[in-house]
Amino acid sequence: MFSYYLRLAWISIIKHWGLSLVMVTAIGLGIGASMTTVTVNYLMSANPIPHKSKVLYNVQLDSWDVNEPANDDGSPPTQLTYRDATYLMSAKKAFRQNVQAQANSVIEPEGDGALPFMVSARANSADFFTMFDLPFIYGSGWDQSADDNKEQVVVLSNDINQRVFGGEDSVGKSIKIGGNYFKVVGVIDYWNPTPRFYDISTGAFNDSEEIFVPFSLIAEEKVNRSGNTNCWKSPGDGFQAFLNSECVWLQFWVELPNEQAREEYMSFLSAYVEEQKALGRFERPLNNRLNNVMEWLEQQQIVSDDAVMMMTMSFMFLVVCLLNTVGLLLAKFLGKAPEIGLRQALGASRRTLFAQYIIESGCIGIAGGILGLGFAWLGLQGIESLYGDMLKGLTGLDTTMIVSAIVLAIITSILAGLYPTWRACNVQPSQQLKSQ
Amino acid sequence: MQELGLIFRALLRNKVGALLISLQIALTLTIMVNAIFMMQERSTQMQRPSGLDEANLFHLNNTIFAQEYNQQVNLEDDLALLRQTDGVVDAIQINAIPISGGGWSMGLKTEPGVDTSSTGVAVYMVDDHAINTLGLELIAGENFSPTDIEWRPSGKSTWPAKTIISQAMAEALFPDDWQSAIGKTAYINNDEPMQITGIVKSLQAPWNGWDGVERSMLVPYKMESSGSRFMIRTEPGRRDELMPIIEKALSESNKGRIIRRVTTMDETRERSYRGHNAVNKILSSVIIVLTLITGFGIVGLAMFSINRRTKQIGTRRALGATQWQIMSFFMIENLMISSFGVILGVAGAIGLNIWLVNTFALSPINMNLVLFGVIALYIVGQIAVLYPARKAALISPATATRTA
Fold first, then answer.
1. What is the per-residue pLDDT across A41-70, written as a single tens digit (0 to 9) for each?
2. Given this model, what pLDDT does residue A436 score?
3. Does the CB of B308 have a partner CB in chain A at under 8 Å?
4. Of the candidates B179, B189, B203, which has an alpha carbon nearest to the alpha carbon of residue B51?
5. Closest residue, chain B, to A178 (C-alpha)
6. Beta strands in A109-258 (DSSP E)
7. For residues A328 and A371, what is the distance between their CA atoms, to the nearest angstrom?
8. What is the model's pLDDT at position B1?
9. Which chain B residue has the Cα nearest residue A25?
10. Residue A413 has what pLDDT?
11. How far is the C-alpha of B103 from the C-alpha of B97, rounded, in Å?
12. Distance between CA A85 and CA A69 in Å, rounded?
């Protein structure tokens, strides 16, 4: 029977091709628009490190001005001071911990005619690589002793390794960075978590860094720190004064394997802040935070207002398209009242009629869904061309999205078909036959 | 006029179809009005002048990596080279580029001390060529003199004795009489005094979304920094020709640094407002497509209701109704449907706006815009119903005599 209904649906759709085309286009546009915005929102709020997001925690301490909170909502600053971060590192109270800052430097490749070039760098401590699961092609990260001894070691991205060493295994070779020679200890494969959760302060959707160097070299001024810096108090003159200042510019992450470890770390942080209060720092009320990856992304509201507004509007748009489809289906099905009356008189049950018209609605829905996928793809291309690299990596359709688009299209079109179908099934055969 | 009652009663016999169209019109109005409003807000922001002679300006990054590098001597050499280049009007070293997104801000206050509140201001570290290079208009006081310019080593955190501020900053510090700012002292870092010696008409901060975007200050500093920027103003029309020449000249004059990101101010503006532009383009396509869909919906349903009423229409025609009377019947019917939709839509538009205001801190909607939306949708409705109504009017009176 199903294939018979399908054939009937096909005949009916072809017969009123104009009306069908308007319906399919309307559903397609509605699905396309909402899928485009849902995709952008979905990718913006994706989990960048699913297998570990629950055990990695960002640390916030409220070292801010007693007169004024760091953020309007009363939350502590998003980054740490050098004093606090280096203390937390040396205390080693977490299972793993790492401190990081953004930096930049210039690489001077060997050989004639090779021009020096700028690279973006991350100054981080040893656990960074294991905590965030960086994929190594050659070698590995450095160990704790390299941090402690301020060794000039570096981990390169695949791109930089290609550029400087032609892609060969460069572990053990040296490379001139910022006028100093660094020993390559590892090369990583492409690694670009989206959102870039480990440092939101310099852009949640920016590229990850090109080289990684020990954080302890920052204090040695072997790499130039950069990135977002906020001070509520003048740091004073000179780099040492800056390091001792109340300026926040460091990201601090810990890995805590279970709830108990989390609680213990929280009480360690409280004890530390209480200790500092005695020294005249941390004048604000106790306000430390430990957020796991998804809590952190949520708190930092990295999904832009524009994206949320667009998504709201696109869903309203979908509703308009569906109202449109309901109206047109109603018109179409009621236009067949004489035919329905005749079929009922010849013995068709309401259930058969219902099945037939629901299948017809579903077919229109599937067609609309497929068209909608096309529109969504176009929409994402359009968004990519409008935003350029601002939304890089946020405009791809994956299987989840394709399946959701089709399912959404079928469900919505069947919903849209319900009322018209019900009306069609309630046609009074006697009345219709009378007028024949 | 008694026709109105007739049309209304006829309409009530097909409530669902009419209701569906009304709801579509209502939602279309809701989305359209709010989308246009959001577009207007963005366009207004984009049209604010930066205060700079943008068409003839470009900037570049000067990144020093050599260990032995005399920053003071080389900076003077660079500036001399730039200023002597044929076609260059003037050039400066600057710490941040207006509307580029990244820069430095401080707070200024008129009374020293930690308890008084300060006003945020964007800081531009420049020398006495800044006003000429950027194309600023000095409206009070005077420019820095060459002797005002101090060297600022990296890591230094004190401030020089003088500053030139934008008019918006003067108004923020001295709300009663901004011109009185000249000669007054403002305090930075709570208690370090700086004398205001000049006011420029406008100069935007680096952050276009900041509510203090018009507030900025010029500080007489030459920076000893491994990463600084140069801003170069050319004679009108010579910018594009000079950019590669200057990039090459600077790169070759000293191998201890990298010249990169040679960028026009036009491009900086484009990048700065790319998100705004994108949202506006998306919103305008949404409005157009939405209106088309609603229009087609009206056409479809009107055609349907006319097909169903072919016989009645024929009968009316046979009884002497003119073509125009038939047409106006459907147009008036559409007006009634539209009116219901529009009433719902006005409520919806205001409702959505209230939600946007609460959720995203947008400003409340302008009622003229709502009125515009109402009129626009009436017109769309009338245009959409024109073709079906015309078809109805062409139904022959003879139809009345047929049975089907």
1. 888 888 999 999 999 999 999 999 888 888
2. 47
3. yes
4. B203
5. B65
6. 117-124, 136-139, 153-157, 174-177, 180-188, 211-214, 224-225, 248-255
7. 18
8. 56
9. B293
10. 81
11. 7
12. 20
Biggest CA–CA distance in chain A, Å, is 99
Distance CA A62, CA A179 (A): 37
Chain B's closest residue to A317, CA to CA, is B290
Could you say which residues from 87 to 106 on chain A have a Cβ atom under 8 Å away from some Cβ of chain B?
104-106
- In angstroms, how far is CA B235 from the centroid of its own chain? 29
CA dihedral (B124, B130, B133, B136) positive or negative:
positive
Give the A:B interface size as CB pairs under 8 Å. 138
User: In sequence order, what E strands does B17-170 have?
Assistant: 57-64, 88-94, 105-109, 119-126, 138-141, 150-153, 162-166
Interface ipTM: 0.85
The pLDDT tens digits for A133-163 are 999 999 999 999 999 999 999 999 999 999 9
- Residue B217 CA to residue B200 CA, distance in Å, equals 9
- Mean pLDDT, to the nearest integer, of A305-312? 88
The amino acid present at B21, given as its one-letter code, is I
The DSSP annotation for B294-342 comes to HHHHHHHHHHHHHHHTHHHHHHHHHTT--HHHHHHHHHHHHHHHHHHHH
**Interatomic CA distance for residues A394 and A377, integer angstroms:** 12
Nearest Cβ partner for B155 among A238, A317, A423 = A238
Contact B274 A317 (CB under 8 A): no
**Dist. CA B119–CA B107, nearest whole Å:** 5
* Nearest-angstrom CA–CA distance, A378 and B221: 50
- Residues in chain B with pLDDT < 70? 1-2, 402-404
Q: A188-197, A421-430, B145-154, B332-341: lowest mean pLDDT where? A: A421-430
